[in-house]
Design goal:
alpha/beta; TIM Barrel; ten-stranded mixed sheet; two-stranded antiparallel ribbon; 13 helices; 15% strand; globular
Length: 450
């Protein structure tokens, strides 16, 4: 049988009950990063929803929720402990330290996350970072970052982060119009507070801490205007960072699998490859003008994977096993984007109080295997061209969900394929257009030869 147009998503009905390949080569994956759910609650409600719900007796009530990128389908946070204690942080530090010694690690990463982590006061982070670092051997560097919505960022927080060299990422969907869905519980927009936070962190004293922005791709916004908006925030002086750690811009494609939560409104929209089309001029602009100023994460990931450089970006097949989520109560969990799959999907019967990172690695591998998410789906390897499937990696795991299994191609398969082709094509075109210019990087020349 011959399949045309690189559309393995059309074969979704053929993906059930496929064999999972041996995981032996994958079981020894070191946990480099620990994502600490500092707070399980958030101070804003992204894209609030209201819908009528009819019970078994015909009674109608109103259900309120949120279209939060990650927590739309998960409600477990409502009963979770609100904030992580320093006692739990201390135990995490012990686990980090023993794993660093076991692995002889040169680096361990801790990412403060939520909910909204800045619901915790500055002194929490000061003490937490000190505790975490105290257990690491002298040859292991502790790298700390925080992902926040920005509304609560203060100079007091930034002083703590400056002392620890903690990089700050801000989640923001774009300019005021694009960001209208990110509101407080009373419906008031958060945009002005976020812009004040960006102005604060862009002061010369703190600018080196600004790690980047995370944005959900908005098809209703103009792509280049959106890109230029973020570029002005991230590189206000239009100069590369003195420390060579340029900020990152990550546009996220939507989550959603093959059911009612599909990322597409219709079959016609799906076949138009809207997300790849939206990103195309951004890839081109960044490649031609801005690679020395900021890091466009999805584009850089594709370029890395073309060169066979390891890149565990979850949008392109990262399985999350080089990182572990640790909830407010110290329990381990799978990568948090999988929360989109519903209550309990990410839960692991393990805790820092009773399980080492070594045990957590094995438990995560076993859980991912059971879900069908441990390897690139067989259909992707058999149907997609090798030069596409090796880079796509099956896509983001939540987009592979179908009737409780994740051993399926991504629901965004066509958009991913076109995005990969676009980036490769722009890299080749740019290389040949500049073939007599010594400034062309060798890696782009190599891509042009593939």
């Amino acid at each position: 049988m011959i399949y045309h147009n690189y559309m393995p998503e059309a074969l979704i009905s053929n993906t059930e009950n496929q064999e999972i390949e041996s995981l032996d080569p994958l079981l020894d994956r070191e946990i480099i990063a620990a994502i600490l759910k500092v707070n399980s609650r958030c101070n804003i409600r992204c894209y609030p929803t209201n819908e009528a719900v009819v019970d078994d007796h015909g009674a109608v009530s109103e259900k309120t929720g949120t279209d939060c990128y990650m927590y739309k389908e998960d409600t477990t946070y409502r009963t979770a402990e609100k904030q992580m204690t320093l006692q739990t942080v201390d135990r995490i530090g012990q686990r980090l330290g023993e794993d660093a010694e076991r692995r002889q690690s040169h680096r361990k990463v801790v990412i403060f996350h939520g909910g909204e982590p800045l619901l915790a006061p500055p002194e929490f982070f000061s003490e937490a970072i000190a505790k975490l670092g105290s257990y690491l051997p002298e040859y292991t560097e502790l790298v700390t970052t925080i992902e926040t919505n920005g509304t609560l960022l203060t100079s007091e927080h930034l002083e703590v982060f400056r002392e620890a060299n903690t990089r700050v990422g801000i989640s923001l969907d774009g300019d005021r119009d694009a960001n209208k869905g990110r509101v407080y519980a009373n419906g008031r927009e958060t945009f002005d507070e976020v812009m004040a936070a960006v102005e604060l962190i862009n002061q010369p004293r703190y600018r080196h801490l600004f790690g980047g922005c995370l944005a959900v791709l908005n098809l209703e916004a103009d792509p280049l205007q959106t890109y230029d908006f973020f570029k002005r925030l991230l590189v206000p002086d239009n100069l590369p960072r003195a420390n060579r750690k340029n900020p990152s811009l990550d546009f996220l494609m939507p989550l959603g699998g093959w059911g009612d939560d599909s990322p597409y409104e219709s079959e016609v929209q799906r076949l138009s490859r809207p997300y790849a089309t939206w990103m195309a001029p951004i890839h081109k602009r960044w490649l031609e003008r801005d690679r020395g100023l900021l890091r466009l994460r999805s584009t850089q990931t594709i370029l890395n994977k073309i060169q066979r450089i390891q890149d565990n970006h979850d949008a392109f097949g990262g399985d999350g096993r080089s990182q572990v989520v640790i909830n407010t109560n110290g329990t381990y969990a799978l990568t948090d984007t999988m929360l989109y799959g519903g209550d309990g999907v990410t839960s692991l019967a393990a805790s820092v109080y009773s399980h080492s990172f070594e045990r957590a690695e094995a438990i995560m591998a076993r859980r991912l295997t059971k879900l069908g998410a441990a390897v690139v789906p067989k259909i992707c390897r058999e149907v997609c061209p090798k030069e596409t499937s090796e880079i796509c990696g099956g896509g983001n795991i939540p987009n592979r969900e179908y009737q409780g299994s994740y051993d399926n191609p991504s629901s965004l398969c066509g958009d991913l394929s076109r995005t990969i082709a676009d980036v490769r094509g722009y890299a080749v075109a740019y290389t040949y257009a500049k073939r007599h210019d010594d400034a062309v990087e060798p890696f782009l020349v190599n891509i042009a030869k593939t």
